[in-house]
Design goal:
single chain, alpha+beta, Arc Repressor Mutant, subunit A, 4-stranded mixed β-sheet, two-stranded antiparallel sheet, 22 helices, about 50% helix, extended
Length: about 475
């Protein structure tokens, strides 16, 4: 081939790419876990990795000891040293004196009312209170109703589909298909379920729930049933004049009927809901010390991990024998070191981010939530020297205990709302102002969203009506038409 051909050559090029190592993946995973999830993950690793053990002994030299031990474990994870006579000395390994432990174990008290030889053992079931669920309550009534076997089976199916609010929201055709029965059988038994306590249970929607409760009243309910059946939307909007005109009744009579409906329970199963208090354990504390604030990590309850000396010595003893046991110990040792380093890195990152938040939100800590400043993830990321995504992971499901209360770390990040003087106000502060305005309004003439916009404008806050509506929804505040009260 004249004038052409292929040439071979060697070219060097350099480029950067992100490689997700197992260590990095583990660090990211631990970073976004909540405190409870982290404790669960550590407990799981303690069970699965024999190299790890919990260090229950606390001392002032503990951090330095842990750092020294971690460095030693890392060195052993990278390479296995040749064992020495001293390393193989069994007296150098951790020993557990079972006899002393048994002898020095806690003694059970003896005497009246205790676990003596002739005393009856107290059952905790007799002293721990239990609550009856809605399902248990309905099942108890089912057993007293006198159904035959077929009816009992259908009623049991319906009760099983009653949710915590007392409704059956699953369509009957789906229930029939899943349970191998007919829709007609379900429809036939449903009215009997509607007779159960609490009134309104087993309803498929709000209207049916209110109608069931209306029929339980010991009075003429014809107009009440008419009101719920045909004017529920007007009732929701509190359009009493429109209802009175359509029903051809006096306004006072309509208002009296509406009072009865408002006193009904829209969620019949609410009385059986478990009101268990959910406690939040803060990840970090902020204490006032003089004119400044000190950040302190909450280490209470988190297992303090260390590498087992027994397996480290076993690894050295097996260094000359290339066997399966050595490979297994080395693999578990590396995993243990990665986990301990990832936990330390997580705690350091939380500390640095919280310290930066305190510095940026000093007015909040000094004066309260009304003085919180606009702040975005980039502000903290630039200050700490980490990526914004890392800040997002750190602040999700992490809580800080402050002199102003317990807050999620994400609470301190707010968008800015412009003011007349050129400054910006945090969106959280605007929400508090909206909440205060609604709390002080006339219930017979509540503030509309546009009226709230006008009142905020008088305070120099420029905000759109749709933004007010969004913030009102976030605060759980109903529209003005639904907040209006005539009585």
């Amino acid at each position: 081939m004249a004038g052409g051909g292929f040439k071979q050559g060697l070219n060097l090029s350099q480029n950067q790419s992100l490689r997700m190592t197992p260590q990095l993946q583990q660090a990211i995973k631990l970073l976004q876990l909540s405190r409870m999830e982290l404790e669960t993950a550590i407990r799981k690793e303690l069970e699965e990795n024999p190299i790890l053990e919990e260090n229950a002994e606390l001392s002032e030299e503990q951090p330095a000891q842990e750092k020294s031990q971690l460095a030693e474990a890392e060195a052993e994870a990278r390479a296995v040293e040749t064992p020495t006579a001293q390393d193989n000395d069994p007296t150098k390994q951790d020993e557990f004196e079972w006899e002393n432990y048994v002898d020095q174990g806690p003694k059970m008290p003896t005497g009246p009312g205790t676990l003596g030889d002739s005393e009856e053992i107290m059952s905790y079931e007799n002293i721990i209170s239990t609550t009856k669920s809605l399902y248990d309550h309905l099942l108890w009534q089912l057993n007293l109703h006198g159904f035959n076997d077929e009816e009992f089976a259908i009623a049991s199916i319906l009760i099983g589909y009653v949710d915590d609010d007392g409704y059956i929201k699953t369509p009957f055709d789906q229930i029939a298909q899943e349970e191998g029965v007919t829709v007609a059988q379900l429809e036939e038994i449903l009215p009997f379920i509607h007779e159960f306590d609490p009134a309104g249970v087993g309803a498929r929607n709000l209207q049916e729930c209110l109608l069931i409760q209306a029929k339980h009243l010991q009075e003429d309910t014809h107009d009440l049933v008419n009101l719920i059946t045909n004017y529920l939307k007007d009732l929701e909007k509190k359009n009493y004049d429109g209802i009175a005109k359509s029903m051809n009744r006096d306004l006072e009579e309509v208002i009296d009927m509406c009072k009865i409906v408002y006193d009904m329970e829209p969620k019949p199963g609410r009385a059986f809901a478990t009101n268990e208090t959910i406690y939040i354990t803060p990840d970090v504390y902020v204490y006032p010390v003089g004119d400044d604030y000190v950040v302190s990590l909450n280490e209470d309850g988190l297992p303090r991990l260390r590498v087992s000396n027994f397996y480290k010595n076993a690894l050295k003893a097996q260094a000359s024998n290339n066997n399966v046991a050595q490979d297994y110990i080395k693999e578990k040792l590396r995993a243990a070191v990665w986990l301990i380093k990832s936990i330390h890195q997580r705690q350091r990152t939380i500390y640095k981010v919280t310290e930066s938040i305190v510095k940026h939100q000093r007015d909040f800590f000094d004066k309260g939530p009304a003085f919180i400043k606009p702040m975005i993830l980039r502000d903290i990321a630039n200050d700490v020297g980490i990526h914004e995504s890392t800040v997002s992971r750190v602040t999700t499901n992490k809580y800080v205990h402050t002199p102003r209360g317990i807050f999620e770390l994400k609470y301190f990040f707010n968008s800015g709302i412009s003011t007349d003087d050129g400054d910006s106000l945090a969106s959280e502060s605007v929400k508090l102002k909206i909440k205060d305005l609604v709390a002080a309004e006339d219930v017979k003439n509540p503030l509309s969203d546009q009226k709230i916009v006008d009142l905020l404008k008088k305070d120099g806050i420029q905000i759109a009506r749709r933004t007010v509506a969004k913030y009102r929804d976030m605060l759980g505040i109903l529209p003005s038409s639904k907040r209006k009260k005539f009585f």
